[in-house]
Amino acid sequence: MQVTTNRASRDTKSEPTAHRLVAGLGWGTVATVLMSAVMLLGTAVGAAPVPKPVPVALTSQTVGVPSQPVLLLMAGFAHLGYGAVAAAVLAGSVRRVSVWAGLGYGVLLWALMGLVWLPYLGWGLFGIAVSPRVAVATLVPHLVYGTTVGLGLDRGHRPVRAGTTTGRGQR
Predict the structure, then answer these.
(1) Which residues of the chain fall below pLDDT 70?
(2) What is the DSSP letter of 169?
(3) Whole-prediction pTM value?
C-alpha cells in the first residue's frame, strides 16, 4: 500500500507559520536594536543606574571576562539573538499579534529578566540591590521592544479598506 501526501497542502499550511516566524525574527531584531539604543541612552545620561548594560553583565557573568571588544561583540549578538528568537516565539505562538500583545510580551520579558537574570547577576529582584530605579529603567526599554514587535507584526494583519488597492494594482 502506497501512502501519498498532498505536498501542496502541507506547504501552504506551513508557509504562514514559517512567514510569521521569519517576520518575528526580523521585527525582534529591529525591536532589540531600538530597545538597546534606549537602554544605552538611559545608561549614558544616568537614568539607568546599572553598573553596566544588562547584556554585557550577563555575558561577562556567564562566559567570564574576555577582552572588552570581544565581550561587547558577544553581548551584542546574544542580545540581538535573544530578542529575535523571543519575537519569533511570540509570532509563532499567537494567531494575531497586536500592539497590546506586544506590550504584554515586553512586560513578560521584563518580569523574566527581573525575576531570573538580575538576581543571577547578584543585583537582586528587579535590580533592587543596585537601586530601586533599576526596575523602571529596565521596564522602559522592554516597553519599547514590545511596542515595536507589536506594531511590526500587526502590520500584516490590517484589513484593506474598500476602495483601496492591495499594492499590486488590484482592488
Answers:
(1) 1-15, 156-171
(2) S
(3) 0.80
Torsion sign (Cα): 109, 110, 116, 122: positive
Closest CA to 153 of 110, 108, 93: 93
Question: What burial class does residue 46 get, using C-beta atoms within 10 Å of its C-beta: 0-12 exposed, 13-18 middle, 19+ buried?
Answer: exposed
Measured torsion, CA atoms of residues 82, 84, 89, 91, in degrees rounded to the nearest 10: 160
Query: Domain map of the chain by residue range?
Result: 18-155
Identity of residue 152: G
**DSSP-assigned letters across all residues of 109-167:** HHHHIIIIIHHHTTS-GGGTTT-THHHHHHHHHHHHHHHHHHHHHHGGGPPPPTT---S
CA distances from 102 to 22, 40, 88, 90, 145 (A): 16, 22, 12, 8, 8
CB atoms within 10 A of CB 1: 2
**What pLDDT, on the 0 to 100 scale, is given for residue 82?**
96
